[in-house]
User: Fold this.
Amino acid sequence: MKFNIAVLPGDGIGPEITQQSVKVLNAIADRFDHEFIFEEAAVGAAAIDQVGDPLPESTLNLCKRSHAVLFGAIGDPKYDNDPSAKVRPEQGLLRLRKELGLFANIRPVKAYEALIENSPLKPEIIQGVDMVIYRELTGGIYFGEKSTSADGKSASDLCFYTVEEIERIAHLAFKAAGERRKKLTLIDKANVLETSRLWRKTVKEISKSYPEVELDFLYVDNAAMQMILNPGQFDVILTENMFGDIISDEASVIGGSIGLLESASVGEKNALFEPIHGSYPQAAGQGIANPLASVLSAAMMLDYFGLIEEAKAVRLAVDVSIQLNVCTKDINRDNHYSTERVGDFLESVI
Amino acid sequence: MKFNIAVLPGDGIGPEITQQSVKVLNAIADRFDHEFIFEEAAVGAAAIDQVGDPLPESTLNLCKRSHAVLFGAIGDPKYDNDPSAKVRPEQGLLRLRKELGLFANIRPVKAYEALIENSPLKPEIIQGVDMVIYRELTGGIYFGEKSTSADGKSASDLCFYTVEEIERIAHLAFKAAGERRKKLTLIDKANVLETSRLWRKTVKEISKSYPEVELDFLYVDNAAMQMILNPGQFDVILTENMFGDIISDEASVIGGSIGLLESASVGEKNALFEPIHGSYPQAAGQGIANPLASVLSAAMMLDYFGLIEEAKAVRLAVDVSIQLNVCTKDINRDNHYSTERVGDFLESVI
Ligand SMILES: CC(C)[C@H](C(=O)O)[C@@H](O)C(=O)O
Ligand SMILES: CC(C)[C@H](C(=O)O)[C@@H](O)C(=O)O
Assistant:
């Protein structure tokens, strides 16, 4: 089969990790006789530097006409401490999500047996954790009206949700739960927020169509505690944009292997795959970045293409690299491999 | 000296723990020759049951004319799963905060050496943690305009902040940092929210008046990770209402002793002291609730009254009870004491 893949390496370590995924995808194409056509484009700080826009029209168009987007990472410290900067790298990512209609961000979080020692949590707490977070990605306070008063003395952000926005991601989450341990937890703040009450009501309604899935509710503050005290209780988590940002990042570190966590952002017509870690500018260009999260994101892309066996082959290669400790120094402290050598190893295993 | 203290036991375990604090405060009054006049009033689900209002006028008036409020806990499961309930216990607490102008919620989080084993985090991560969180409590998305469309198909919550609201709590936080390790971390989401950019700008401006305090910034998603990976990096945290709710609850469990965490909510004229744990209805009436967080909140009240020696005496008593393991079963698993016996012990030590 033939697929067009837009490659957006982005900032910091983005380019070097994405390169390994391309390598792995090429190996898959060879072995399974597919054709993957990669086309690269700039995004984020890299795009601001080149053309003054974190999401140039040409990049957006490329993404729209591709079957999927392989995304690196975004962000550069030179923009971080200037709250009044007119152009910021993050705007590129937010606009891309909105323009492509990527309403569901899907993040699996799994404790890798071989890496449990790396977790900040005690082993008995993290053992066996296996959850997936469905975060709404194109609504809520991220995209509601923002304003600053003329005198600069006040500001506001509107959190806004429609029933439709809630329904479409809720269906995805319930379906996923049905194929997993059949438990869905909605995280909200229904004791304070009107939007959360709309979420709770809508999700309750939808749950009637999925009688095999057990639904429960957790206030976001309590969820932030439960994620540390007993993460094993979670199967599928469903939540709105801002709570999803916070809770999924919290979840991402409990396994001790943020360099291994992949994500998919999907919509009606488009999909984007990216590691959940950031651009780590301090590590850029040193060959120490862990490419596995990007490679596992590429595996999610293969699943999305319907190439299930191919996705399995990628995951198997990653498992082997972890078993044999062919890993970058975040995982293999004593005798680490470079980003590129990990990529080469994966290629050779596939 | 003479002080009027409004006692609002509230729901669940609220009454039994608050009773121990009253006992301890009476012991302090005896020993240091003060007069504490306690007057009790209903709040929360208890008040709804009694008079149909989670914050009856008489309760509010009592709080207004008292020197301080000793608060138990709020919340009852019978209201939790009904998002459309017209009256909810939490409304009582939110209204009380607003009416009393309690704009700063102050939560110290400390790792107790004797309890490090209880932490879900590895000992080396939690050891030595000692931070205090300043959460803005009467603004932001909690109190901005809320609405649901007439057809029920959409809802919104407005997050709104003024420079003044940010300044007054920022000054408190900088002063606290100046008396501690001189580091202040602002937690926000300035890469997405207009209100966060206002926070960042305002706090930067104020920091010029506190040159001895080092100021840094953390996005809330990153903060949720750092709280687990390296909580020792924090000294004073400053943040807005919703982020404070989430991050402070996350912080509250890392020490493994949520039953020990106290809080103060202060304004220009009033102050309220409460344990940060909830009403734990499942434990109510069994004599197993840990009264120490409430008792330590009473110590914060004494500090607020300017009774520094008295506050120290309370904290010393608590330390002794922990050292000797005269503790409820959340801490002393094998040979635990009842809520009341812990209170009696503290009284006898003072
Ligand atoms: C970069 C930032 C705007 C983004 C977000 O908040 O959504 C990031 O934190 C993420 O989670 O992908
Ligand atoms: C009960 C609830 C409204 C409250 C809040 O969100 O502020 C509680 O979680 C707290 O932190 O005191």
The mean pLDDT of chain A is 95. The longest helix of chain A spans residues 14-32. Chain A is about 45% helix and 20% strand. Chain A touches chain B through 62 residues (CB under 8 Å).
